[in-house]
Amino acid sequence: MVRYITVGIDGSEAGRAAAAWGAEIAARRGVPLRLVYAWGIISAWEAPMDAPQHLRMTAEEKLTETGDAIAAAHPELEIRRESPPESPVPALLDRALDSDLLVLGARGLGTIAGFLLGSVSHAVVARAECPVLVVRADSAGPEGPAEVPGTARPICVGLKRPERPDEEVLEFAFAEAARAGLPLRVVHTRRSAGDGTESDGEETAGRLEAALTPWREKYPQVAVDAAPVAGGAAEGLLAEAAGARLLVLGRGGRRLGALAPRVGAVVHAALHHARCPVVIVPHE
């Protein structure tokens, strides 16, 4: 079965940034790119043929515009363009089933207010069964290895429990770092122990290293920097990811599908305040 990198577009700057990221990743992985502009139906009982013609035409125009720009930059890339007469959320969730990655855009609001994650992106992130990459409108495109060794911005991944690491999250982070030729920074935040003293840093570092050993062996080409970080999970992750190229986090409840709960506080904070694109990987 064909697996896609699927990008949801809507004609906005954020959608164009998402398409640029999706195209780079699809080209790097050697898989087809699918552009989706879901133009929706006005009401639940209205048939697609009754929907306003201009919605369909707008969708086709934006797909052509975006697809042609990508084809010019990546002539070798297979591009599929779809304009389903569906609401965006169900259309994207359905296409997540045969996608390796779903890419969506978010509009920037500035460092104080954070970034605007629309209702579509938020719903898809919470329920998609494949990893979802959220890209800001002002995000630079993906980059490969730095020309000067040691200057590449790393991929950053949050590890919640070293003693029970989420395999899907680490697999995505290590594989993406290997494909892009980028270093990987593994962040595990820890708070003080219940009696007010700092938890044993050496013991935590040992558990962290034990969790990463099989992944270092599987991806020996990836340079890994890992250390426990004291403080709150959201604050620590955002601080460590400040200079990252990409932040990778996990979301539980993969099998729940449409019944999945909203994203947790850490994922929510990252989606709204991280300066870099964020990938949310569903896991069991």
Automatic annotation (TrEMBL):
Protein name: Universal stress protein
Species per Swiss-Prot/TrEMBL record: Streptomyces calidiresistens
Gene3D superfamilies to which the protein is assigned, alphabetical: HUPs
PANTHER family per record: STRESS RESPONSE PROTEIN NHAX, UNIVERSAL STRESS PROTEIN UP12
Family statement drawn from the similarity comment of this UniProt entry: Belongs to the universal stress protein A family.
InterPro entries referenced in this protein's UniProt entry, alphabetically: Rossmann-like_a/b/a_fold, Universal_stress_UspA, UspA
Domain UspA: 1-136, 153-282
Pfam families reported for this sequence: Usp
